[in-house]
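Researcher: Structure prediction, please.
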Amino acid sequence: MNWAWATSFDQISRPQAFPMWMILVAAGLLGLILLITLVRAERSVANGALTVIALLSIAIAVAATVRVYGPAEEAPPGEARAQSAVVASLPALSCLDDLAGNAVAIGCEKALFGSPDAAAAAVSYTAARIDRLFVLGDAATAEKSLTLDMKVLRKALERDRYGLVAQVLVARDGCTQFDCPAFRSLTDQQRVAANMDSHLYDTLVARYSPGWNAPATAPAMPWRLAARRRCSARPILRLPPSPTPRPGSTG
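Model: Predicted structure follows.
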């Protein structure tokens, strides 16, 4: 197959090439033509051609509709690549999945709040993750078609270990612990509401922010090198030269 033709067909078949309302209107008109053709008693070649064209057009319209309104929980390839790039730029963001356990979470807390840019990136990344879940609607409706990845995402958001979900919902959506439309997409909002009340995010920022502008300390010197330098710094004791015997003198 000619790759130029294949590329052109792929560009034409993409849903963003034409507005969806144009595709649906065209499908409706061609469906009407198909209905008229089937009602007529004549079975000519022209009628058969019209039937085939109408069926193909309807199939293309249905395929385009499925591509646009497919399963909502599956992120587009571009979005998935963007999220992977964000995590690659700041590996600490992978801590937000909350899959590594409590022991690792302590180190993750230091990495996420160790600098202002890391904390800001964690808030923005959490906001994007919240939008991925909330676009599916309330929890009861989304449960029927929720993938495993989205279930893990929802569980991590509900756990809200670092108060990031509470911070986004308060600062961006104006939520309170008693009234928040986003709670409908969660199966358990108690932890998020508690973090709103206790201001967990602000507490962690206050804990780590004093070290953001602290001067960097020199790395610890290996003990072998330190011992060698101490030895080399000691003064070297030199013995006085022995007296040279005079000629003719006896010992």
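Model: The longest helix spans residues 45-68.
Researcher: Thanks, that helps.
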